[in-house]
Hints:
Layout: H1 3-8, H2 11-34, H3 40-63, H4 68-94, H5 98-105, H6 107-120, H7 126-144, H8 152-174, H9 180-202, H10 211-236, H11 241-248, H12 251-262, H13 269-285, H14 287-297
Helix pairs in contact: 2-10, 2-12, 3-4, 3-9, 3-10, 4-8, 4-9, 5-8, 5-12, 5-13, 6-7, 6-8, 7-13
Amino acid sequence: MSHSTIRQAPWQADALLLLVTTLAAGGWIFSKEALAGMPPLLFIGTRFLLAGTILLGFAWPTLRHLPARRIRRGLLVGVLFSAAIAFWVLGLHHSQHLGESAFINSLGILLVPVVARLLFGDRPATSTWVALPVALTGFALLSLNAGFRVEASQLLMLCAALCFALLINVNTRVVRNVPALSLTTLQLLSVGIVLTAVSWVVEEQTLSLDAPILGWFLASVLLASSLRFFLQIKAQGMTTPSHAAVILMLEAVWTALLAAWWFNEIMSALQLTGCALIFTALLINRWYWVRKVLLRWLPGARP
């Protein structure tokens, strides 16, 4: 992709993607608050089921003309999404530091080329192998903060990151011919159906749906799911995937800042260093595109 192509991406795409990262970061807060009154799997299952139903109204004109085999593939890949989001919500449920959890979850971006190498024989860029030890050092520092052990929330978020990396690889290979909005709708509905059903089997259905909990739940559905994915798909259609990925990396940063403000979270020196190393690894891994974004944003910059 040439520099001139990147320069043609409208500033509206950047603005929308920044809004998407803010909504995604807000989703961590909304979800953590809602989990105070709902079992984790029931919360995420019903959240995605409702969000998918809302998006279905926008995706239906395209979905009704898709071949049945593509719809089946989209729904089946949604089962893998179910595993990823189940690990995520359980990690969030146990997490005492949302900012830390967000940075661990962001490792999924870095692990995409690694999974592609292991499962599909792709050859990752050199930057991936440079970034990996930096990221692993960051994760080790986060573990040291817990007293030389990995906390349950950290392990669950790491599992979520691995599943998200696998999901991205599968999406690009198995369902590449399904339009983005249709695919997102199918996968949200699949997650909603699977995890709601699993919740009824394995979770004790104790609900405390007072007005605040219901408000956080609706914010998760409407803002952090339906609106977020709709805007993300729209923005990604206005720019390149790699350019969008650079801006979407900011989700972890916004989450840490929001958690510090809303929950008064304070990170130790080890946590701050660990998160900084993970973010540095993400920048290294995407440096070619980070440089393109910086050149575009900085006045008078030249390649």
